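Researcher: Sequence recovery benchmark, item below. Answer with residues only.
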């Protein structure tokens, strides 16, 4: 690589990092956003590795790349990156992106609420940013149709034996497992042990169960496993979960696409009704709100439109370079 000089805005949502690339990244090619995702994977992946991995990043880093929208009426389009590759949807980054878009004037502020239309690899996502006295606050977004792909499926794992789980789609596919069924507690078990369990379950599902998206083959893969506290029935008390994705990466936020998937499964099981607000808590104690807005369809699947809400904050800016002779030309990860 002859030249690497990238500028970023650093944010977090519920403690989960968002490294937004605002300058220096090579142009990503493709007529559609999924073609751009493939181009980034096949032609420019060294750039992702340098920004996500150590020493510039870390195993739990998360990033956003701006690309040109190919759908009409979109304010911006984005690709999501992490230590392992490229996601199809990310709620915590969507919340951060919506705030950044109006803070930078990319979308004009309107009080009391500004709408930001974001094209994600899974489809269009509509965010609404609360604005008071010119200052943006809480963001709520409506994602693509969410649905339960499978209920009460069982996979065999080396450590935990048979594990029964549901699979939900919230822009990405997740296996949903009550942690107590494998002897863990999402509020008290150390995060590293949750990560090991989640990764083992993810590998088992990937090997043993088919994951097919009804309309787009590029979306048909299991993104991660969400261990929950099992409190799926409607309650005014928060329900906790830990999302493990991209290997053993642990989401510090409640996971926007994961909350979407959980609500879709809860609705399918008739544990929650339309419009009922739920609070979802992460391993850091941060919270997202969520509710099912309306019914729809995703191909042959009955589906719902879900709204998720949270807040993002800035943590800094950066300019990353690569010096000639640096022995870590693609970064590294310590397992």
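Model:
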């Amino acid at each position: 690589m002859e030249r690497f000089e990238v500028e970023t805005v650093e944010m977090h949502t519920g403690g989960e990092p968002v490294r937004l690339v605002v300058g220096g990244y090579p142009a990503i090619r493709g007529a559609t956003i999924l073609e751009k995702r493939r181009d980034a994977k096949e032609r420019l992946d060294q750039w992702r590795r340098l920004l996500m991995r150590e020493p510039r990043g870390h195993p739990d880093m998360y990033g956003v790349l701006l690309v040109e929208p190919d759908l009409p009426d979109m304010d911006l389009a984005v690709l999501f990156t992490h230590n392992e590759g490229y996601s199809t949807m990310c709620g915590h980054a969507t919340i951060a992106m919506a705030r950044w878009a109006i803070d930078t004037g990319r979308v004009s502020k309107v009080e009391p609420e500004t709408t930001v239309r974001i094209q994600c690899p899974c489809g269009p996502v509509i965010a609404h940013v609360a604005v008071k006295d010119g200052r943006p606050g809480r963001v709520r977004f409506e994602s693509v149709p969410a649905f339960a792909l499978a209920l009460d499926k069982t996979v065999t794992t080396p450590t935990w034996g048979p594990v029964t789980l549901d699979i939900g789609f919230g822009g990405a596919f997740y296996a949903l497992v009550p942690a107590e069924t494998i002897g863990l507690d999402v509020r008290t078990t150390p995060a590293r042990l949750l990560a090991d369990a989640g990764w083992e379950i993810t590998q088992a599902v990937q090997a043993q169960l088919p994951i097919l998206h009804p309309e787009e083959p590029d979306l048909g893969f299991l993104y991660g496993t969400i261990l929950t506290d099992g409190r799926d029935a409607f309650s005014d008390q928060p329900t906790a979960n830990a999302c493990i994705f991209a290997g053993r990466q642990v989401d510090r936020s409640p996971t926007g696409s994961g909350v979407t998937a959980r609500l879709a499964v809860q609705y399918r099981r008739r544990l929650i009704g339309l419009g009922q607000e739920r609070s979802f808590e992460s391993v850091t104690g941060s919270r997202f709100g969520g509710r099912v807005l309306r019914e729809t369809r995703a191909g042959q699947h009955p589906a719902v439109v879900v709204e998720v809400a949270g807040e993002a904050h800035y943590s800094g800016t950066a300019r990353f370079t690569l010096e000639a002779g640096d022995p870590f030309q693609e970064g590294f990860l310590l397992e």
